[in-house]
C-alpha cells in the first residue's frame, strides 16, 4: 500500500466513520482498527483488496505462510 497508515480504536474509528472511510477511499489510506490495543480489523480500499486477492490467487498453493 502506498497511502498513509494509521491505527485507531474502535471508538475513535466509529466517532469519525465518514471521515475515516473517505480517507481510505480517496487517500489510499490503510486503517488498523484496535480493541483494547489489539488489532481486530484493517480497513483498505476496494482496489487494494482486489490487488491483494489477485496476488494471493497467483501465489503457488504450496508456498509457506509468511512469518510474522
Tell me what you see in this structure:
The chain is of the alpha+beta class and 68 residues long. The chain has a single domain, classed as YefM-like fold (3-Layer(aba) Sandwich), CATH 3.40.1620. It is built from three helices and three strands. It has helices spanning 10-15, 17-27, 46-58; strands at residues 5-9, 30-35, 38-43. It holds the Pfam family PhdYeFM_antitox. This is Antitoxin.
N-to-C SSE series? EHHEEH
| Backbone shape | flat
How much β-strand is present in the residues?
A: 25-35%
CATH topology title: YefM-like fold
Task: Estimate nothing, just give the exact number of structural domains.
Answer: 1
Radius of gyration: 14 Å
Continuous helix count: 3
How many beta-strand runs?
3
N-to-C span: 18 Å
Largest sheet: 3 strands, mixed
Uncertain spans? none
Tell me the structural class. alpha+beta
Overall mean pLDDT stands at 89
CATH superfamily: YefM-like domain
CATH architecture grouping: 3-Layer(aba) Sandwich
Spatial arrangement of strands, main beta sheet:
1-2-3
Fraction of residues in helix = 40-55%
Using the coordinates above, name the CATH class.
Alpha Beta
Amino acid at each position: 500500500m502506498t497511502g498513509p497508515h494509521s491505527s485507531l480504536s474502535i471508538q475513535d474509528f466509529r466517532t469519525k466513520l465518514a471521515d475515516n472511510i473517505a480517507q481510505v477511499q480517496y487517500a489510499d489510506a490503510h486503517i488498523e482498527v484496535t480493541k483494547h490495543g489489539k488489532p481486530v480489523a484493517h480497513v483498505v480500499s476496494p482496489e487494494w483488496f482486489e490487488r491483494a486477492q489477485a496476488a494471493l490467487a497467483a501465489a503457488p498453493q504450496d508456498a509457506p505462510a509468511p512469518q510474522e
